[in-house]
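The pair is quoted verbatim below.
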Amino acid sequence: MGEGVGVVGQLFFGRDDAENDLVDGLLNGAVFRPNYAYREVLSGRKSLIIGRKGAGKSAICRRLAAPDGHPGACVLITPDDTAGDEIRRFELQGVTADTAKSLIWRYVLAVHAARHLTLHARAAHGRRPPPAVRALRVFLRTNGESDDARLYDRLRRGASGLQSANLSLKAFGVEAALGVNGASEGARASRQLEVLEDGVAAAFTALGCAAVHPPLLFLVDQLEQVWTVDADSHALVTGLLLAAKHVTGRYGRAVRTALFIRADIYDTLDFSDGDKFHSDEIRITWTHDGLKDIALARARASLGAELTVAQLWEQLFPPSVRGEPTAEYLFARALPRPRDAIQFLNACRSVADERGGLAITEEDVLAATERFSRWKLQDLAKEYLVNHPFLRSLFPLFANSGYAVTRELVETRFEARREALHEEFPAYTDSLTPQGVIDVLYGAGFLGVWRGDDVVYTGGIHAPPGPGEDEFHVHPCFRPALNSLGPGRGAPAGGVRLRGDVDEACERLRRLLDRSPLPMPAHTETLNQILSIETEALRRRTRGRHPTSAQFAVVAGRFEVLADELARTGLVGHPVTRRLQDEARALLRTSGGAVGSGQGSSSGG
């Protein structure tokens, strides 16, 4: 690269969304990284692609639809609000909501297949089309489906025809509306669809497409645009799943589907046939190596040069940040998905470019860390706004304190806010419990759980926190924005020192209780609480768990609660009350978690 390596003004890692990335050329064949999920979908082994927002679902979808992606024809379907409203409103007497929505989706897919066959027969087979194809052409013309209509218009026409059983099926030899007197709307609509799908299947067979050409691929993306937390949205998505499975079976190897669904939507679905889709599922996961591969490919594309790994991470970027290799520093502080990686890398580049730098310095990366963390905390609340509108209100529970917390500390902080949260979000009281909060925050990637000898964050094969797991860490991505202080897990030497502080504090309090006893039953309750703290500390030590700043914050909190209870009974100036307050402040100072202690946020976390 020579001197060009230092010119950060030319560096660019891409756009935040696949659509604009495609326009900028950063999703072309040379830059797009064909990960395992892409290869599985391309091969036809998987048809249900699940991933978090920003995980790369749309990038895979757009690459499959590109001329050098899927080798056969593709139909891309991306519902908008008007299309979503039309599907949600669609219902049929005599069948469930899931079944009704599956029928309208089947109609849309059948019409798209029919239009593909009428165009494909002329372009690829070069002869007079067989009668089955001519029948499809007549059907499309007589039902107003010959044009390249918007999805909304196609849904509207299909809904009208299926609900009133007035689709014109003369092209297939059916002269009148189908149905038997007394048959339900659902039964009549299903019969009409069977006739149409029989016609489509006959045309595929007549042309011999399954044996000669790659299959027609239906791509359905951006369902989150039409998702709300209601029964009709649930039926919209489950109906699509049922329809996709039906058409691939009905048309055999001539048709395939690929549905791209956000994980937070898919994981809320609950329907009787859900177990039939496990073999079709693939969840998009990313490793640090995969994200580094993306970073290098995009840097090369923007600079128009064969940048090496060393040039990217040792010349354009500083070799290390706070003692960590720069790439590891960056990707440990972003959720494992391409969008976050792209945004963080672009933030580093922007900070350097704003000051006119020829390379990105460690100070630039640290400044970008703060900026990026604020973005992502806001983005996380927006990402889960539909399913968990209360998420933003949970963040203050973890602000201005150590980023390692115990279950007990979460419970203590939550209880102080329970009433306010329940008043603000009355429809979510079942989720707004200490365990519910832990489950939601873990599922969103905000909290990780200490398991074995490491912190595990959501994703892959990791199970959610169980009742016996009581230590959680705020993800490094969000710590600067929350001003989370102190180490996540103390080194053994520090743990010994802190452990001694707890034991000594409890011993001092017990000696003081002997010298200056409290009135009964306050004396008994206070002594029992102190003994309980000592017993819990011993239990953790016998399990081989090193103390963290979070455990000492919990103990400090318990001392403060005891002091408040004594003060409310009129013992404000009692020596035990004052000593409890003093020991609480001392523990917070020792653990690095005292509010107002003068410590700044630990971006390096």
User: Anything to note?
Assistant: Confidence is low (pLDDT under 50) at residues 487-498, 593-605. The first helix runs from residue 18 to 23. The longest strand covers residues 255-262.
